[in-house]
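Progress narrative, work stream C.
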Amino acid sequence: MSKDSIQYGQLVEQALRGVVRDVLSRVAREGLPQPHHFYITFRTDHPGVGLAASLRERYPTEMTIVLQHQYWDLQVDDETMAVTLSFNNQPQRIVIPFAALKVFADPGVEFGLQFTIEPPAEENLAETVPLLAGRDREAPVRDHAGDDVAEPADEAASGGGAQIVSLDRFRKR
């Protein structure tokens, strides 16, 4: 079999990461319309991921976050997304380079992407963290559920904090 010097797989995944970036940019500007909500799985050990030490210790290789009712200060640029979520009633800023994405799912409309090809090494830039992490961490908290409650509804039922969910039901078998 001949070598794929054009690297079609990488080009397709780069384009699909662009789709995720564009969707998140739109949500950052306009808010999250119903019935959309996102499950985002990313590699926590990827260069440029900004994560509290306690979360990195708990999820050393992979983590899934949910953007639905309560998330704050979603920011998106060309290379990264950053968002504040509550873990055990403590706001935590998470910075995720798009190159670290493994899965992006929007179960509200039965849409999902799974990334299997590692981006080229030059895309794994450790400099992406300061780009968004350096912004004001004390930004005003906005509740995307439309009320003034700063804790996710699921938190009370789960004993506090964000929940990590399995995406197996969204993956093609």
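Work stream C, second folded protein:
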Amino acid sequence: MSTLLSAGLCLALAAQSAAYPPADAAAQAFVPGQHFTLAWTHSIEKIRWEEDYTVHTTDKERPYLSLDRARVRGSGAGMEPPADAKRVKGWYEYTPQGTLPPALRLTRSSYTADYTLCADGLCQPMSHWLTSDGDITLMWACSRP
């Protein structure tokens, strides 16, 4: 696996994206980096959830995301941690199983707090990179458009 300096995350509003999965050129925002944390607060339970992602690049295929670790601060309303989760400093931590779709579909509502996206240790609301239209935002691994 080689690392391209221009790899990162592309973000686009689903309503404005003509292709799915979107081509890199369809990105409305680019967040450079290889390691990211996506965090949010559950809209009903008000419990924090965090997921750690890595952007992988090779010379022969498009960049892709892996979901490496996840943490949840508690449980309730459809957000129970899996049976293999370990309690660490107040968080249930675990390694998610399965493969990811080409683009993650993130619901961003004006009625809930925005996602937090951390890149290179700097955490910002997702609106720092791309404003919300109150619907779906697509996020996928890409090379600088």
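The CA atoms of residues 22 and 103 lie 8 Å apart. No further action is required on this item.
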